[in-house]
Write a structure and sequence with these properties.
By secondary structure, the chain is mainly beta. It has helices at residues 5-20, 387-391, 467-473; strands at residues 31-35, 38-54, 62-63, 69-70, 73-90, 94-109, 124-137, 148-155, 186-194, 199-207, 223-235, 248-262, 285-293, 302-313, 322-335, 344-352, 362-363, 397-409, 413-423, 436-448, 454-465, 483-493.
C-alpha cells in the first residue's frame, strides 16, 4: 500500500465516513468520556515524515519561490490533528452529533521537490479543520438506524472511490506538510445522506477551502458546487454498506455536479485566453456513472471497478472558454486469498482527456476537481509517489497501472509494488511531440507496530522520463536523469 499523503488521506477518509455514518462519540479511536447526557471523545492524529528526492524533474531541478535551483531536495514534515466530537440522544429517537478539530503542520529542510517548491521557506500553520454539526435518525420513522443524516459546517466528504470528490483542501504552500496532506475538509457544507438499503443517496453543497494568500496564489479556484449521488449496492455484512463504502460488496452509482460559482478562470490546458488563463469552471456541469465490486456469484476474489465522467460548460468565451472533457477508467483485480501473504493483483487503465488545440475557445482538458486517494487507498487516485506529487495531475493523461499488494504478516506488515506507465493524451498541450511521459516503479511497506495506533511506512520509488516529457522540459537525452525518491512516514492515531 502507499503511504504519506495517500495513507493519511485514506485514514482521514475512513475516519470521516465512520463519524458521519453510524459511529457515535463513544465508538472508534480516541478517549471517550461523558458530560451529563453528552457522549464525548477526544481524538488525536499525528504524523511525521522524512523525504529525499534526487534528480528533481529528471535532472532539470527544482526551484524555490525565490528562484534558487536545487538538483535534489531533503526535507521533513510534521502534522498533528487534535479533535473533539460529541453526540447526544439515542438510536431510536435520533442523535445530534458534531466534531471540531484543528491541524498544526510544518515543513523543514529544503522543502518538497515540485518544479517550483512551495515549502522551501519553512512554512508552519495552525488552523481549524473540522467544525460541523448534524442530526441523524431513522427508527422513529420506521427506518434503520442513522437512515437520515443531515449535517452542516466544515467537514470531509467523499463520493464513491474519490474519482471526483475526496479532498476539499490543498496542502503545501503556507499550509505546509505537502506530502503528509493532513487536511481534507470542505467549507460551508450542507449534506443530506439517505442511508437506506439497497439504495442510498447523498445531496450536498460543497465549497473548496481556498486561501490564495496562504498558498502564494497557487490554490485552486474558490469553487462552490451542488450535487447529488445515487447508489444501488449489496453489502458484505448485513446492511452495513449503506453507511460504509468498504462494506459494499458491489455497487452501481450515478453522480451529478453543478459548479454554480467559481472565482477565476482555470484550466489544465494552460491556455484559453487570459486570467489564470483558461476554461470556465464557473457553470461547469459534471455527470458520472460508476460500478465496482464483486459481481460474479461464488467468485468474491475477483473484483472490477470503473467510472465514466464528462464535464461540460457551454458559456463560451464571454465568461472564459467552454468545456468539453471526459475521463474514465477500468480496473480489474484478483485476491489470491489461499496463497501465502494473500496477494492482491490489480491492473488499471485510466484516461483523462487533454486539449489538442489550446488556441481555440473550447477546453478539452479534464479538470480533476477534488479527486484524491479515496477509500481504496493506493489503488485510487494518487497515481504514483513521484508522478502525482512532483510531475503532473490527472489531466491530459493516459495511465497504465499494475499493482501487487501482499501481507507477509496479516494485520502487522503489508507490502506494495506498483508500476505506472504514463502517457500524454495530447502531447501538443504539453509542448511535446511524443506521448511518452514517464515510467515509474514504487516499492512500499507499512508496519503496524505493537504500540496501539502507531504505524511506520517506508518506501522508495524511481521515475524515468519518456521522450515527450524530455521535450516538454527541454531536456536533452544526455541531461536526462532518473528521479529517485526515498521516504519514511510515522503515523499515530490515539
Amino acid at each position: 500500500m502507499y503511504f504519506s499523503k495517500t495513507l493519511l488521506h485514506s485514514v482521514v477518509t475512513a475516519f470521516a465516513m465512520s463519524i458521519a455514518g453510524a459511529a457515535t462519540a463513544g465508538d472508534g479511536p480516541g478517549i471517550p468520556f461523558e458530560l451529563g447526557q453528552v457522549n464525548l471523545r477526544a481524538t488525536l492524529d499525528a504524523a511525521a515524515g522524512a523525504y529525499s528526492l534526487k534528480n528533481a524533474q529528471f535532472g532539470n531541478g527544482s526551484n524555490s519561490r525565490t528562484g534558487t535551483r536545487a538538483g535534489g531536495r531533503n526535507w521533513y514534515e510534521g502534522a498533528v490533528t487534535p479533535g473533539l466530537q460529541f453526540d447526544v440522544g439515542d438510536d431510536d429517537l435520533g442523535q445530534i452529533y458534531g466534531r471540531i478539530s484543528a491541524v498544526g503542520a510544518m515543513t523543514r529542510g529544503a522543502g518538497e521537490a515540485q518544479a517550483t517548491s512551495t515549502t522551501s521557506d519553512h512554512p508552519e500553520h495552525f488552523g481549524i479543520e473540522d467544525a460541523y454539526i448534524g442530526v441523524r435518525f431513522g427508527p422513529s420513522l420506521g427506518l434503520a438506524e442513522s437512515a437520515i443524516d443531515l449535517s452542516v459546517g466544515n467537514q470531509p466528504f467523499v463520493v464513491g472511490d474519490g474519482f471526483l470528490i475526496a479532498n476539499g483542501t490543498a496542502d503545501g504552500g503556507g499550509r505546509a506538510a505537502y506530502l503528509l496532506g493532513p487536511r481534507a475538509a470542505f467549507e460551508r457544507t450542507a449534506i443530506a445522506r439517505i442511508n437506506t438499503a439497497p439504495v442510498r443517496a447523498d445531496v450536498f453543497h460543497l465549497q473548496g477551502n481556498v486561501d490564495q494568500v496562504l498558498m502564494y496564489g497557487n490554490d485552486g479556484p474558490d469553487t462552490r458546487l451542488i450535487g447529488a449521488n445515487l447508489e444501488w449496492f449489496g453489502s458484505k455484512t448485513e446492511d452495513k454498506g449503506r453507511l460504509d463504502y468498504a462494506e459494499r460488496k458491489w455497487y452501481l452509482g450515478l453522480t451529478a455536479l453543478r459548479v454554480y460559482e467559481a472565482d477565476r478562470l482555470f484550466s489544465f490546458s494552460g491556455s484559453k485566453g487570459g486570467g489564470d488563463a483558461a476554461a470556465n469552471r464557473d457553470g461547469l456541469n459534471v455527470l458520472s456513472a460508476r460500478a465496482g465490486g464483486s459481481f460474479i456469484p461464488d467468485l468474491d476474489a475477483f473484483g472490477i471497478y470503473g467510472e465514466y465522467a464528462i464535464e461540460r460548460n457551454g458559456r463560451g468565451s464571454g465568461n472564459g472558454g467552454s468545456v468539453d472533457a471526459e475521463a474514465w477508467y477500468l480496473q480489474p483485480q484478483y485476491a489470491f486469498g489461499d496463497l501465502p501473504w494473500a496477494p492482491v493483483l490489480t491492473g488499471r487503465y485510466a484516461h483523462f482527456s487533454g486539449d489538442k488545440n489550446t488556441g481555440d475557445t473550447t477546453d478539452k482538458s479534464w479538470d480533476p476537481l477534488y479527486s484524491d486517494a479515496g477509500p481504496r487507498g493506493s489503488t485510487t487516485w494518487t497515481q504514483g509517489l513521484i508522478y502525482s506529487q512532483y510531475v503532473g495531475a490527472n489531466s491530459n493523461l493516459n495511465s497504465y497501472h499494475v499493482g501487487l499488494q501482499a501481507q507477509p504478516i496479516e494485520g502487522t506488515l503489508s507490502l506494495g509494488l506498483a508500476y505506472y506507465r504514463h502517457k500524454y493524451d495530447e502531447p501538443s498541450q504539453a509542448g511535446a511531440r511524443s506521448d511518452e511521459l514517464m515510467d515509474e516503479v514504487d516499492l512500499s511497506a507499512t508496519w503496524t507496530t505493537p504500540i496501539p495506533g502507531l504505524s511506520v511506512s517506508p518506501g522508495i520509488a524511481a521515475g524515468m522520463s519518456g521522450a515527450g516529457q524530455r521535450q516538454a522540459l527541454g531536456l536533452s537525452d544526455q541531461a536526462d536523469r532518473t528521479m529517485w525518491l526515498g521516504q519514511i512516514v510515522v503515523n499515530y492515531k490515539l
